[in-house]
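[step 3/7] fold_predict: job queued, chain A
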Amino acid sequence: MYGQATFHQHTHTITTENMFKQVLFGLITASLLSCGKDSPGTGNPPGTVTLVLTAARVDQTAVPASNSLNNISLNPVIRVSFNNKLNRNSVSGAVSLKEKGVPVALQFGYEQNDSTLVIQSSQALHHISKFVLNISTGLQSAGNASLYQARTINLVTRIDSSDKFPQISDDALLTLVQKQTFAYFWDFGHPVSGLARERNSSGETVTSGGSGFGIMSIPVAINRGFISRAQGLARMQTIVAFLKNTAQKFHGAFPHWLNGTTGAAIPFGANDDGADLVETSYLMQGLITARQYFDGSDAAETTLRADINTLYNNVEWSWFRQSNQQVLYWHWSPNVGWAMNFPIRGWNECLITYVMAASSTTFGIPRSVYDQGWAQNGSMANNNSYYGVQLPLGSPYGGPLFFAHYSFLGINPTQLSDAYANYWTQNRNHTLINYNHCVSNPQQQFGYSNLCWGLTASDIEGGYTASSPTNDLGFIAPTAALSSMPYTPTESMNALKFFYYKLGDKIWGQYGFVDAFSLKSPWFADSYLAIDQGPIIVMIENYRTGLLWNLFTSAPEIKNGMRNLGFTAPYL
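[step 4/7] structure written:
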């Protein structure tokens, strides 16, 4: 237990002991009815009494019917009881404990006239690791009866409460997280285009939206001394030149994925091989932010700003209304046209798409598209309460937390309102619902607590999913809590300290925190994703100084576009 962290353990009303007593009763009854014939499947000679496992305990805890137990000690004492005295010579060949398939050296003892086997490891087990105890049918009674049914028990050891790194100030920790996470975009950026690779195993595949997030991290890195202004400018020149002169575009919009060397679109899906308007809006959010930052009068920064304006002004936002409908469409393909047929409607991560479209001076959209398409004339409202917190907009329980992050890397939600919501209330309450869900832990996911929380889209064991309170598979993504720092500073800082100090040996790596983890399996990702790493840097900075919020919302066309959509805020 760490601080107020509480780890939950699943229990069952029918104990293992009762279950095996029922099995034993059934076997004895069957034996009597069959006039001494052997029970089916035992392989024992006629007339012998079958060896049955009647109970299993780890330290003082009974193994539940699920045959899984979490939070065990690093030196567990495992007691397994049987209905008959054991043949000691059969034990070592029939009982094993393995970690990732590797046997653990065991010591055996005996109690209750050799009917209870006491199992201990010869040395302390590793913390937060899965161990599999196997008891095979090779185990025999003193009368040479074989174990009726093999048993497998899954055991997960507890968290090591010691600090994995020296304690530093909260301010220094925030800077460290920003610096090491920035390395994903700086050191691992594509060598030709400078754009962000989709993930750390992507090779040539770069991402337009994730690159927008990475671009927003460059002013942070310059201001905090991670790189020089000259270095940041040079990287921006590489990126902007590639986007302008090499990258494939469709009506000015970019695909989700591109080849980092050739600029050719890489299909994201069967019919998703062209424009992705939402990813384009993330990219443009980053570019406008960079344009506002590189405000020098010299030729290099002047040219950079002009090239960014060209890229933004060439996006045909209004064309994506698909024949002037009152809504924007997400995708268009040069091969299959509008086959994806996915209108962008709220509430989700796409508010920035409508803001960028409304702010365009070349291909802008009227407010009616926002009201009727995005807001659906107000039907995106929710206003129900979850865990005692009212949610103004969106789906039940708020959905994954990236809804409160992606659009708000640049859009400052502080005192921001329109006809549909106060956006600070929306994002803070969404975050609190997500936090309260993890603390309440209705699904009894092992390891969730007030220190270990945060559900959003991420890698999971064997795949990828958009985790949320309504899709909770037991996987925590560090980006969820850390990118929520402006909304829940205390809760997010507590999570950061837990992730770094207590789990740091498992989830802190070359580019900051890995994408996700689960303490119940346990499982720790070895991946880093651009769309998850970027918001950590940017939103921590917005919490600390408001830098990116101030830059993006200082753009004249953004101010005008947001006012035209009916937004009010001090900065407008």
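[step 5/7] annotate
Residues 16-33 form the longest helix (18 residues).
Confidence is low (pLDDT under 50) at residues 1-47.
exit 0
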